[in-house]
């Protein structure tokens, strides 16, 4: 991800198959580069077979008079002339598979060599990294090369297949690389005068903006070694000379142009962005210069690859222009499996190829049907939901939920209400709520920084008690409105799990205090003659955009019980007012559970899921509804149907990606990493664990003791810390200022970092005023999380 240098142009060479002449053509490129007075580096990451036949030896053997300009090497060498994964196993018989280099080892080794060569030159040089076999030939670990080498994100040359069937294998290889995001600068292949594949492939790739070079075939291998050497040497001389008909020297120039164009694009993007883009949630008045624009060149796993503008502007820079940056907000809470997950990409491509997009009203297709059944019967709607309604994103999903709830309430309680009274129906919720940026979703929240001039707050919002870890202790903070004292009260609990033992806490005096406070408040509102409250809308357990407020779950449970009049658990019909769970942020294991319903011991009438749903690849939302809510729209009158929809309702690509995401989530729940994280959060007193986090409990506890930190809280992927600051709120800059050094590039003092390629990395994070938060993917490796913990600790403790 960070292997882009001004002075060193690097290309990775893939083959469309085995035996396509990859080494011969790479050797020709090496020689042509050397003829242009360039230092040339050749790297064969993995080699199998006898050393005398090794590709790096071939490159040096035919370097000839240019050998002093050429440096060739191999990183992992195996004697057996078989696929790399098998060659590695044969070299390590018995149960020694743990000794086989991992993909991470291979990638880091390549990146190290590239960095070393870049640092050793003073003038512009070329480097070629030649893979083994075809695009999907296995690497040492068994994963295919296309996936193994993807973290490096090197510009690619594809060596096409000139033999029978080569058109198909070349196009298939190209598409495999394209699906994984590779930049394919050129295709090169031999001119076979019988099959003439190049004649078909040149216009085919020209339509796709890909340069194709066709090269004369090499001579037949001669029996006499000296004769064969001379014949081969003459061949290389003939195809690398600067004569008009030779394509190899021209290809080298073209590759240089591609390299320079990429550098130019990276340099121009900040200014072009400032001239044309209006960012969300950004005060453009604070953006002082082009250096304030983060240019993301690519992304992989948990990291962006960002442009280091200061290095780009150095005339003779030897460091990489790109560097990894940890995606500390999971790209606004969307990432589930990390960026560029191949399984999700392939799921999207398959649905795109099969459907594109198709109309959905009174129709069905398999991706949507499978997803609806999964969400209703085997997912967060299990046990209470009857129907799934598709929409475009979390905000539109909440708009649908509000329409459902308000209609259901109007039908049951609207007798005698005129149309004006119905239009004034209000929402009951919590202060700090956020349900999206569409007007209707805004109106379901009290006025605040996220609303607009047209905002019409309709409802009442309780100030909720919250949960946090302060100075190593688990604290529930009770606001003055509940405690009836000038200052908030704090109640200490023995463990985080005890906070979320809802059934046990329902018998507490605090539960009775909550009940009395909620009942009296609602009675007071009714006596005041305010518009009727028609739905309870909550973000269960964590209110995200409001400041990562971890609400006391007991308060939310009591609130639902009061609103419903303690509806019988056997009843599936809503009572009091419909209850909506906005689980756009917290749902589908983001905070360590599929849904908050089982933990709260009570289920909604309507819920909304998005973000995690599609793994961070494509926007989509699902609103789940109970049978009684659905039946509120059943009629023989078309006008009484739910007349709400989106052009891309049940988008097949989004549905198929969601199905794959949920499948991957099923696998993760039984993974060793999840089990280990859950075990770390087991209460020391032996009581049952109810909640857990990927963040280490000791780190969280000690972080809360730092003098700059007011409190810390975590569940699942989420870590939130509140900075001690007199000017609290969204407009505060305290959290941003305290953690600013996380933006510096650091390898953690260990030589190789946990970022792809092992390069020093920075941390991209966002703040909510005096609150900083960090969110991992659901498959972030423990080593990455431990590294981020270390960086956060050092940044604040310093």
Characterization of this structure:
This protein is an alpha/beta fold. The protein has a seven-stranded parallel β-sheet with strand order 3-2-4-1-5-6-7, with helices on both faces. A hairpin with a 5-residue loop joins strand 18 (542-543) and strand 19. The chain has 28 helices and 27 strands.
Keywords for this structure?
elongated, 27 strands, alpha/beta, 28 helices, Rossmann fold, 798 residues, 7-stranded mixed β-sheet, Aspartate Aminotransferase, domain 1
SSE arrangement:
Elements: E1 8-15, H1 22-35, E2 39-48, H2 55-61, E3 70-78, H3 84-91, H4 103-119, E4 125-134, H5 145-148, E5 156-159, H6 166-179, E6 184-191, H7 197-206, E7 211-216, H8 225-240, H9 248-276, E8 296-300, E9 303-307, H10 309-312, E10 322-327, H11 330-333, H12 342-354, H13 366-377, E11 385-391, H14 394-413, H15 419-423, E12 426-430, H16 439-443, E13 459-462, E14 466-470, E15 473-478, H17 480-483, E16 489-493, H18 496-499, H19 502-505, H20 509-527, E17 533-538, E18 542-543, E19 549-550, H21 553-564, E20 579-582, H22 597-600, E21 606-609, E22 621-626, H23 627-631, H24 652-668, H25 672-680, H26 697-703, E23 709-715, E24 718-723, H27 734-738, E25 762-764, E26 766-768, E27 771-775, H28 782-797
Parallel strand pairs: 1-4, 1-5, 2-3, 2-4, 5-6, 6-7, 10-25, 12-13, 12-17, 17-20, 20-21
Antiparallel strand pairs: 8-9, 9-10, 11-22, 14-15, 15-16, 18-19, 21-22, 23-24, 24-27, 26-27
Helix pairs in contact: 1-9, 12-24, 13-24, 20-21
């Amino acid at each position: 991800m960070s292997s882009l240098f001004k002075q060193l142009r690097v290309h990775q060479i893939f083959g469309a198959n085995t035996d396509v002449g990859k080494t011969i053509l790479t050797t020709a490129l090496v020689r042509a580069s050397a003829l242009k007075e360039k230092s040339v580096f050749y790297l064969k990451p993995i080699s199998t077979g006898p050393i005398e036949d090794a590709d790096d030896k071939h490159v040096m053997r035919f370097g000839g008079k240019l050998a002093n300009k050429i440096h060739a090497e191999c990183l992992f060498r195996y004697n057996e002339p078989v696929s790399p994964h098998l060659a590695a196993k044969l070299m390590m018989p018995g149960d020694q598979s743990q000794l086989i280099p991992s993909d991470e080892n291979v990638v880091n080794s390549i990146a190290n060599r590239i960095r070393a060569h870049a640092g050793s030159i003073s003038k512009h040089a070329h480097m070629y990294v030649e893979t083994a076999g075809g695009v999907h030939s296995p690497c040492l670990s068994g994963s295919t090369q296309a996936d193994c080498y993807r973290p490096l994100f090197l510009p690619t040359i594809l060596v096409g297949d000139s033999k029978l069937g080569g058109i198909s294998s070349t196009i298939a290889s190209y598409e495999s690389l394209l699906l994984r995001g590779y930049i394919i600068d050129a295709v090169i292949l031999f001119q076979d005068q019988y099959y003439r594949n190049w004649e078909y492939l040149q216009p085919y790739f020209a339509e796709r903006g890909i340069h194709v070079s066709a090269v004369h075939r090499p001579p037949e291998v001669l029996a006499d070694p000296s004769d064969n050497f001379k014949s081969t040497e003459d061949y290389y001389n003939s195809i690398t000379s600067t004569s008009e008909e030779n394509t190899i020297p021209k290809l080298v120039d073209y590759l240089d142009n591609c390299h320079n164009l990429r550098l130019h694009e990276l340099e121009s993007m900040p200014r072009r962005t400032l001239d044309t883009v209006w960012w969300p949630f950004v005060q453009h008045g604070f953006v002082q210069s082009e250096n304030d624009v983060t240019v993301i060149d690519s992304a992989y796993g948990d990291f962006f690859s960002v442009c280091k503008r200061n290095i780009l502007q150095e005339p003779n820079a030897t460091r990489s222009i790109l560097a990894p940056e940890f995606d500390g907000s999971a790209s606004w809470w969307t990432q589930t499996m990390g960026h560029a997950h191949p399984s999700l990409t392939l799921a999207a491509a398959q649905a795109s190829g099969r459907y594109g997009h198709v109309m959905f009203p009174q129709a069905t297709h398999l991706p949507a049907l499978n997803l609806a059944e999964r969400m209703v019967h085997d997912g967060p709607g299990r046990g209470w939901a009857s129907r799934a309604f598709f929409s475009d994103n979390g905000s539109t999903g909440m708009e649908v939920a509000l329409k459902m709830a308000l209609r259901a309430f109007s039908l049951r309680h609207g007798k005698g209400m005129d149309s004006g009274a119905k239009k004034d129906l209000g929402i009951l919720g919590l202060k700090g709520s956020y349900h999206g940026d569409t007007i209707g979703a805004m109106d379901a929240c009290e006025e605040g920084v996220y609303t607009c001039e047209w905002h019409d707050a309709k409802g009442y919002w309780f100030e909720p008690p919250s949960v946090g870890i302060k100075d190593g202790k688990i604290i529930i903070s009770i606001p003055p409105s509940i405690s009836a004292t000038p200052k908030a009260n704090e109640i200490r609990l023995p463990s985080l799990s005890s906070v979320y033992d809802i059934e046990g806490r329902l018998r507490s005096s605090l539960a009775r205090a909550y009940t009395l406070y909620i009942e009296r408040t609602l009675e007071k509102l009714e006596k005041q003659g305010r518009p009727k409250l028609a739905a309870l809308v909550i973000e269960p357990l964590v209110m995200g955009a409001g400041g990562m407020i971890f609400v006391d779950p007991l308060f939310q449970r009591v609130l639902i019980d009061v609103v419903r009049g303690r509806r019988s658990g056997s009843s599936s019909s809503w009572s009091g007012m419909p209850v909506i769970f906005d689980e756009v942020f917290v749902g589908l294991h983001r905070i360590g559970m599929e849904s908050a319903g089982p933990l709260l011991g009570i289920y909604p009438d309507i819920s909304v899921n998005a973000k995690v749903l599609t793994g961070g690849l494509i926007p989509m939302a699902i609103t789940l509804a109970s049978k009684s809510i659905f039946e509120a729209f059943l009629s023989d009158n078309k006008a009484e149907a739910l007349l709400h929809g989106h052009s891309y309702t049940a988008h097949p690509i989004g549905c198929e990606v969601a199905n794959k995401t949920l499948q991957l989530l099923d696998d993760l729940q039984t993974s060793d990493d999840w089990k280990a994280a859950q075990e770390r959060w087991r209460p020391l007193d032996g009581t049952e664990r109810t909640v857990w986090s990927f963040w280490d409990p000791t780190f969280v506890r000690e972080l809360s003791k730092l003098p700059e930190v007011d409190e810390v809280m975590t569940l699942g992927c989420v870590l939130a810390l509140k900075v001690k600051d007199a000017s609290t709120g969204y407009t505060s800059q305290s959290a941003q200022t305290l953690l600013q050094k996380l933006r510096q590039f650091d390898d953690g003092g260990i030589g190789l970092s946990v970022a792809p390629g092992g390069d020093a990395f920075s941390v991209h994070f966002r703040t909510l005023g005096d609150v900083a938060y960090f969110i991992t993917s659901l498959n972030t490796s423990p080593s990455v999380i431990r590294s981020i913990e270390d960086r956060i600790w050092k940044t604040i403790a310093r």
